[in-house]
């Protein structure tokens, strides 16, 4: 049911904000309720790997886009209702805590308003014709039509009721029929998510991916860009069934990591059934998505960066050995070891990847010598991000091209910054360098 992934991948793709850095979640999440935000986060942490479930969610959100849907409930009212319903008069241990008479009255009134608003919403033309949610709509209507809730609809929203009536409703809502009321809230929270994503779709011109069954080996993304990068450059990459490995080269600062994040984020978000930042996309559903972009040293077990890479490759290998179809990304594979070991390791791993036709792999590397051997594999494709030299100043197009590049300009940048000259001038130069840094 759910796509296999891990914390490393979610951190690599920056799905959630850290410190002052926004995450992909923040783009899509404009939910009005705390419950909606919780469900949105759960969707991000647990993408889908069932084609039918993904298509249903895509069609549901697309229908809300078409309706130009707005959220029909008051967020503050819903939060008040949730707080009231979820309040526990009998917490485990400690002193018993109860709601005040005023809090109970406000809670009861908020639930009565919720019932009336929800029924009107479900009977509206848009929801009545939304076939993707018909099963859920009927289940919620069945709860609203339960004879136990007839007294709720006999009351009018925002009309003060007697103390005796409040007491009776409190027993009904928070005791006898609490599970059913929570079921209604759960449905409303999902509506909150769908409306939020639908509105973001139009605002950011996102597109819904075309879903293909598992095992069909299709991964085609046109005009993909990173939604958090201002004035981002769009790129296209097609991985048909005959191509399962992309070997990516390019100098530092040429845009490899940004492109890899953009492409991998689209693959991940597509498995959520959400629209993606691209011109168009088609993909075959996978069992798992794993990326390795910013792999930290595992100091807890005394592991170097290289050993952490080895453990990461081992984890992927174990998943593949179980017959799973995966999307796998390694940015600069085996950067933590010497050039000779990196070449041998990169060749061994990439050769093994090319034999797994049911999965897709992208490996970026500075070890361009590996490309000569990998060209013998018909399922490997080669792309690079170019560097244009204007005299001694490198410029970057950030536009993906087919082929392999041996662009290296590390020393050019060092010389352009005058670092060697500064160091040659001794302590005075060193102090100047510290100021610059």
UniProtKB/TrEMBL annotation:
Keywords from the named record: ATP-binding, DNA-binding, Nucleotide-binding
Record flagged with keyword Transmembrane: no
Q: Record the organism.
A: Chitinophaga qingshengii
Task: Return the Pfam families for the record.
Answer: MutS_V (PF00488)
- What is the protein name given in its UniProt record? DNA mismatch repair protein
Organism's domain of life? Bacteria
Using the record's annotation, list all stretches that form the DNA mismatch repair proteins mutS family domain: 243-431
Q: List the coiled-coil residues.
A: none
């Amino acid at each position: 049911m759910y796509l296999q992934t891990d914390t490393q991948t979610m951190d690599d793709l920056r799905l959630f904000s850290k410190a002052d850095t926004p995450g992909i979640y923040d783009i899509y999440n404009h939910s009005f309720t705390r419950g909606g935000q919780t469900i949105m986060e759960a969707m991000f942490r647990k993408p889908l790997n069932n084609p039918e479930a993904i298509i249903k969610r895509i069609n549901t959100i697309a229908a809300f886009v078409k309706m130009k849907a707005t959220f029909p409930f008051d967020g503050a009212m819903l939060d008040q209702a949730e707080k009231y319903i979820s309040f526990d008069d009998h917490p485990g241990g400690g002193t018993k805590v109860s709601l005040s008479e005023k809090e109970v009255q406000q809670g009861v009134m908020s639930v009565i308003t919720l019932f009336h608003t929800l029924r009107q919403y479900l009977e509206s033309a848009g929801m009545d014709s939304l076939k993707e949610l018909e099963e859920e709509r009927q289940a919620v209507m069945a709860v609203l039509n339960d004879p136990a809730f007839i007294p709720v609809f006999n009351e009018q929203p925002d009309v003060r009721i007697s103390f005796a009536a409040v007491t009776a409703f409190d027993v009904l809502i928070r005791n006898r029929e609490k599970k059913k009321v929570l079921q209604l809230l759960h449905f409303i929270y999902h509506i909150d998510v769908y409306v939020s994503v639908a509105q973001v779709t139009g605002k950011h011109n996102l597109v819904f991916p075309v879903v293909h069954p598992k095992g069909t080996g299709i991964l085609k993304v046109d005009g993909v860009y990173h939604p958090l990068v201002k004035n981002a450059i769009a790129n296209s990459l097609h991985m048909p069934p005959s191509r399962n490995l992309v070997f990516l080269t390019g100098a530092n600062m040429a845009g490899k990591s940004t492109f890899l994040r953009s492409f991998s984020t689209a693959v991940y978000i597509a498995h959520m059934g959400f629209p993606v930042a691209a011109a168009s996309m088609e993909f075959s559903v996978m069992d798992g998505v794993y990326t390795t972009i910013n792999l930290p040293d595992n100091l807890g077990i005394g592991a170097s960066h290289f050993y952490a890479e080895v453990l990461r490759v081992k984890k992927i290998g174990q998943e593949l050995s179980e017959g799973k179809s995966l999307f796998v990304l390694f940015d600069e594979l085996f950067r933590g070891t010497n050039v000779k070991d990196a070449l041998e390791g990169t060749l061994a791993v990439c050769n093994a990847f090319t034999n797994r036709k049911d999965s897709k792999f992208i490996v970026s590397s500075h070890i361009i010598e590996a490309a000569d051997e990998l060209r013998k594999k018909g399922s490997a494709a080669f792309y690079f991000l170019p560097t244009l030299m204007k005299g001694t100043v490198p410029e970057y197009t950030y536009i993906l091209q087919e082929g392999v590049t041996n662009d290296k300009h590390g020393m050019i940048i060092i010389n352009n910054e005058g670092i060697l000259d500064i160091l040659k001038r001794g302590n005075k130069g060193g102090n100047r360098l510290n100021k610059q840094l």
